[in-house]
Design brief:
single chain; five-stranded parallel β-sheet; two-stranded parallel sheet; 7 strands; alpha/beta
Length: 450
Amino acid sequence: MDLFDQQDGRNDNRPLAERMRPRTLDEYVGQGHLIGAESLLRRAVAEDRLFSVIFWGPPGSGKTTLARILAQETKSHFISFSAVLSGVKEIRTVVDEAKNLWRNQRRRTILFVDEIHRFNKAQQDAFLPHVESGLITLIGATTENPSFEVISPLLSRMRVLTLKPFSEEDLSLIVRNALADRERGLGRFDLEIEPEALTHIVWSADGDARAALNSLEAAASLADGTAEAGKRITRAFVEEAIQKKALQYDKTGEEHYNLISALHKSLRGSDPDAALYWLGRMLMAGEDPLYLARRLVRFASEDVGNADPRALTVTIDAMQAYHFLGSPEGELALVQAAVYLATAPKSNALYVGYGRVRATIEKTGSLPVPLHIRNAPTKLMKELDYGKGYRYAHDFADAYVPQEYLPDELRGKGGRFYRPTDRGYEKIIGERLEAWRKIREANAKKQTTP
């Protein structure tokens, strides 16, 4: 029997992801924060008091499925259309239909709008009176931040519920359920799946249930084509189906820490080739690019610091570029940042200096701010000598004047936390600090000379 032959006496050519849509809240896997036993949404369904809502989440996180379940479990009339294909005319038709249903059958209408962020202001305005009156329970789905894409009057009449990408555990269960389900899934083909194949499907899906089921369906069709009994979905079938080779990687286990350590040490060791290799390994294995962006930003301050202050700007720009472009285009910005960091002069003076500060604070506690650098916004503070004797730097040559800024207890007692290296821009910083130090010493000598 072929995988795509008739099922249950009828030809069902729908994709596996469509056939396996949960039909009830109890069948729904994941999103426990929204549909858990004591959740607001569960109670609203149980009490038949469903409210207008926007489901905000990434592709394949179950927004459409959840909307359909809510319509079914509240016995409402469900209408679905896409913001890409529909306009004000279609909205008016829906409103008329909703009025007739309520007038004749006392039946509510749930209107599901996929990609609601694509509606313009006039189209969104058309919903307002009918959402406010309760004629229509509006459920919108969007992958974009609603606060940027949905008009404020409509947003204020709806609740925004955030759907998260499915966890690896959730996706594994969804795939196994599809393999076992003999009515709607692949159970009637008695397929088994190798653990490595299942892991690769889950990683490649990256939180997207639809992508996981599409990959499973493609790999299953390859396995079903073999003549041997007891067919198994192997990692090779999965790799062929999704055209992506599985790499040895565990995003939460030892290999994750091994690879990020290799990347960090390659950057610190000024080896751009090795840095690119480890960055590529992690990206191709399915690591979250924004996790890597955060590590590059951290490195810019920890291991480059003021030896090249531009490094922090480059890494922040790379992170923003990835936010804007996504994969795969945005990955090149991370590559650019990695090469910049690897070839930049290195200094950990900021990292070490901040460590000295923390150790000193833990040892000395909350030392008082010297009076002369306190602000004095009130008469009482002035009478208590707040700000007395403070010298305004811009009134002096080169905008520098010898003056104490540390608490009295730290003066001359290891209060020099930041010690720049002689590499990159820190060499200039060091020369500047040394010049100021000599001015302070000369000033101190002048004050002590009789």
